[in-house]
Design brief:
disordered N terminus; alpha/beta; binds zinc ion; 14 strands; 2 domains; TIM Barrel; single chain
Length: about 475
Amino acid sequence: MAIKKGTTSHSNIRGAGNMTHILHYNTHAERRYFTGKNREMYDLVGLNGNIVSFSPTGTAAFLASISKPFYIDPQTHAFQHDTIHLKTKGSRKNQELHFKPSIVKLANDRLGEPFSNVINNDIPLSPDVFYNSNGTLNSSLITRICRNVISFQSKFLIDSIDDETRDFLDNPNDLLPHFYIAPYFFLSSILWEKWLAINIAAYRISKDLYRDKPVYLELVLSQAILPNIQDICDQIVRDIADVDGILLWIDGNAEEELTRLEVANYIHLLHCLRRKTNTIINIHGGYLSSLLCHNDLKNNLSGIGHSANYGEHREVVPVGGGIPRARFYLQKAHSRLHFSDAADIVINKNWHTSKDLYQNNVCSCIKCDELIKQYGTPEAAFNAYGDSNVTVVPFKGSILRFEYPTPEAKEAGIMHYLYNKKYEIDSLNNHSLIELLSKMESDYQEISSVKGSEFADYLEIWRLELLQALDS
Ligand SMILES: [Zn+2]
């Protein structure tokens, strides 16, 4: 395996504005978004346990070549949901569902029992597995899963490479995660108390066992239990002495769709959790979460994460993919809009008619500049983001028409999105929160004047709740 020597240490995961910007590495095909000049666009790489388990040498080569801090999410929650989410269809000939090979490897070879039982028996984990018959927690079982789950994160990559490859590494620590994640489970609306007690025990035991790195608590929760957040926080505060850091993931938390009450609950959650730790990172967050990282807020977030290839929220269990449509991250909307919506706004405002108007109102990123040079006008450059191929399919006596973005349009949209996220995060450092909120208010007015107020109501909801947070 060819490994290129890295150049930086793992000492710091805080970048612009003293916050941590995570980019999730989901497949090896995404490698190009992390390398070369793109290396400067994020601070920390988020890896899933199944990619690490399935292709350790490819992952090790990738990590050694970028030499950036990373963490490995052990995905222990994946085993508590309906097992259909861990399965995939076979070849065209064999359409039967079977467990994904990456998940089988993770469970059987790395995490062990009771995770492997899920694969062998095809039954999801119940919290009762972790309790004795008298209702107390089974500490020896929880200790065993802590050892398996954390030694997977600490040793597996290093153990997977050969001696020759090891010699090429500047520093074998390049293959050690920046922090460990204790085993964790999803807090669903009904059984959250039982699962939380297991998570807390797993955190305490992991922290006792492993002192060489910080240990993070991953808190993955259903939107439906946010109103119970005070109880959850009280339990954490009561039962854990000290938390090195928290990774937060609220199921399907599309920030553009939150009501005012839901935003208020989310901010209240941060307020409660900050009593236990200085480091809380929302691993699937949008612009609301970026603003919540602002240093002007007392109980702020410490970072956000997103992927290159899709939006900023993520469901705990995968939902149907739907039909891919061309999207464009419109900075004034702070959202990845359908291209046709972005085009309505840009064209109505005439922002496509000159380079100055385009750069001042739409985007001045490297990708947009490249496209303007390539196509000659900002209008043609902007249209390139919406290029689609049309497919027609007969359906129940009529014709359905689908538009799929071309590979070039998709690629351009991803790079433009990554540049915009980086710009938004850098701007936290260069402006007060009040300045950013007043800019957002005028952006809201401009967008509403074309699409109606409901289209961009979320900007006002975020602004009003952030103003309140600033006062508290
Ligand atoms: Zn751009």
